[in-house]
Amino acid sequence: MTTIARRARRGRPLSPGWIGLGFVLPCFLLFLMFRFGPAIAGVLLSFANYTVGGNLEWKGLLNYQRLVADPGFLNALRVTLVYTLISVPLTIVAATGLALLTRRAFRGARLYRSIFFLPVVTSLILAGVVFTWIFSSGGPWSTVLSAFGFPVTDWLESGTFALPAVALVGVWTRFGYGVLIILARLQEVPRELEEAAVVDGAGPWRRFRHVVLPQLRPAVFFLVIIETTFSFQAFDTIYVMTSGGPVDATYSLVFDLYQESFVNFDFGYAGAIGVVLFVLTLVIALIQRATVGRES
Amino acid sequence: MSVVDTINGLTRPSAGRRTTATRDPFAPRGVAKVLTHLIAAVCALVTMFPLYAMVILSLRRPGAVEFPASLVPWDLSVESFGLIFATPEVWRWMANTLVYALVSVVLILLISAMAGYAFAKRRFRGREVMFWSLVSMLMVPYQVTLIPLFILVARSGGVDTYWGLILPGLANVQAVFLMRQFIMGIPDDLIEAARIDGCGDWRIFARIVLPLCRPILATLGIFVFLWHWNDFLWPLLVGQDPAMRTLTTGIASLQAEQIPLSQVFAGSVVAFVPIFLAYLVGQRYITDNAVAVGIKG
């Protein structure tokens, strides 16, 4: 920066390249320091052991060998997958349904859409606090369930139901975003296409099945990727609602990473969990690329 | 088609307004209309229920949230709010959250607008490599970088400091990407004309590009504010001293301390009101652009 200033003062025209670089520099330095650097360090760390005192010791693949034999980690992997398998399909089905419902310009459509989006801007911590109360025994959830003849239990204290409960909270916090994505895509469906289908004698169902639905594909694919990535990172709600319990029933991958690093201070081992998370995300993205790429 | 292309494909300008502007021949009528309203209204009520419960329970007398707690809006009291606001720490959490969110907004907007200008309108060596390596960071989950980031900040004495809280979050990929996309749409002629008139790059940036960027700056500003206001994990790690908590980590600590639920809910309402107001005021901004800004809540 000082050389640029000096050259400018001397009045010699700066080479345009330097100016561009100058504008990018603050941003790029921040990225080097707080993104690229830590990302590389994160991968390297997974092959080492790091103590709070600052000692680094190479471990090779030892952390990974420990991972595959660690029932805690395997459980976290399973919890994360089950969480994803519950929340992603439900989120997408709810989003698609509500987008189709409020797609048409009728009075109030906008209001409904804004209400559906409200949970997306609500903090996950607040959602966690409220849903802890909703799911507790005697709370609204068990009241509704008992009205249908199901036994009254505190879902968050049940080994079977705690995970579906936090996954449902995940759906509540995310479906509004899906509504928006599907709606944006629906606006792109040319009205002429539907009008032509009407002329050809297609009823509402066939119009939906053969004209609208095929057009939704890219948006749904996009949502699957985004929501899966999101589900892999489930943490905030789990932290306030169950702390991974009861008996590790909601102990997700990121919760595992948090515990191993910032509670047990086993940084290298936690780094390996982070790398697994990275690989999972990458695989999902590659699958999306392959499938969508083949279609177009 | 990459995720980035998909985002682009989904965000043609004003895509959200077309059907409402012109008459829709397929708009529901008669029974279909009543049914649509009915289903949508039920879904909206279910969606709102947790937020309604939060507000009503915060207005119960402390210790009166035992089950079955009444959710009917009478016999309300602001006692729990009185107790929450009587806690000096809560004021500190609010101040921390405001500092965290507002300083981040200002700095992220400035830094990413500068970078966006250079990436969109200047040629320099390594431009493409730099830009796409930034965007590639979208693929790396935050949690991979989290541990080294924390070690870095902790070892440089950043725990329980504002810079430790704010600085790492300034490297924001989405912000740079959006700024570049927007500035690419500004005509080159405008910039060339200014240059011929003798404007330097900084003046072109500050006097021409930045004012034209007002819509995207407002949008991005709202989103950055929301992200930081709601952020949890990083403030949890950096704010170890109770005085350095933000509202989210503070409320999580209240919840863990077993204080009366009505107070926890009062604190939640305090944290939620600014978000709700921002959403009411900037609703169209937020929903029309959430598609482009994408993830993170």
UniProtKB/TrEMBL annotation, chain A:
Q: Which PANTHER family match?
A: ABC TRANSPORTER PERMEASE PROTEIN, INNER MEMBRANE ABC TRANSPORTER PERMEASE PROTEIN YCJO
Write out the entry's keywords from A to Z: Cell membrane, Membrane, Transmembrane, Transmembrane helix, Transport
Please cite one Gene Ontology biological process associated with this protein.
transmembrane transport
Record-linked InterPro entries: ABC_transporter_permease (IPR051393), MetI-like (IPR000515), MetI-like_sf (IPR035906)
State whether keyword Chloroplast applies: no
The protein's name: Lactose transport system permease protein LacF
One GO cellular component term noted in the UniProt record for this chain = plasma membrane
Q: Where are the transmembrane segments?
A: 21-48, 81-102, 114-135, 161-183, 216-235, 267-287
The membrane-topology field of this record reads: Multi-pass membrane protein
Cellular localisation: Cell membrane
UniProtKB/TrEMBL annotation, chain B:
- A Pfam family reported for this protein in Swiss-Prot or TrEMBL: BPD_transp_1
Q: What name is this protein filed under?
A: L-arabinose transport system permease protein AraQ
Give the primary localization class: membrane
Question: Which PROSITE patterns does the record cross-reference, listed alphabetically?
Answer: ABC_TM1 (PS50928)
Quick one: a GO biological-process term for this protein?
transmembrane transport
Matching entries from InterPro entries are given as: MetI-like, MetI-like_sf
Region annotated Disordered sits at 1-22
Gene3D superfamilies reported for this sequence: MetI-like (1.10.3720.10)
Cell compartments where the protein resides: Cell membrane
GO CC list: plasma membrane
**CDD domains for the chain:** TM_PBP2
Q: Spell out the family assignment given in the record's similarity comment.
A: Belongs to the binding-protein-dependent transport system permease family.
The record, for SUPFAM superfamilies, names: MetI-like
Annotated membrane topology = Multi-pass membrane protein
Q: To which species is this protein native?
A: Actinoalloteichus hoggarensis
Q: Which UniProt keywords apply?
A: Cell membrane, Membrane, Transmembrane, Transmembrane helix, Transport
Residue stretches spanning the membrane: 34-59, 97-119, 131-155, 161-183, 204-229, 264-282
